Amino acid sequence: MESITITRTDTDSKARYAARVAGVEGEGELTLSKVTDKLIIADHTGVPDTMRGKGVAAALAERLIADARVAGQRIVPLCPFVRAYAEKRREALADVIQW
């Protein structure tokens, strides 16, 4: 597994996770919209070709889910990647995914 560093930046209504892999050019991202304090929407996940196959998108989804659990939030998975990720783990993520 590659060493993936994920950072999060927030505004009042949005947040963005950025993922970098040491020695690899580019940055993966996962963006979300804050609907309420307890409801967020996963909007978009994007990973450049240089990072494909390194688990970056999954790491971004896992960080989003972990942060939402800590904050007591529910995630609406509008992003196709996050939706597919959650579908495969539907039972394990029932507490955090809003279908």
UniProtKB/TrEMBL annotation:
Superkingdom of source: Bacteria
Domain annotation N-acetyltransferase: ranges: 9-98
UniProt xrefs under SUPFAM superfamilies: Acyl-CoA N-acyltransferases (Nat)
InterPro entries: Acyl_CoA_acyltransferase, Gcn5-rel_NAT, GNAT_YJDJ
Alphabetized Gene3D superfamilies for the sequence: 3.40.630.30
Protein name per Swiss-Prot or TrEMBL: N-acetyltransferase domain-containing protein
Organism the protein comes from: Tropicimonas sediminicola
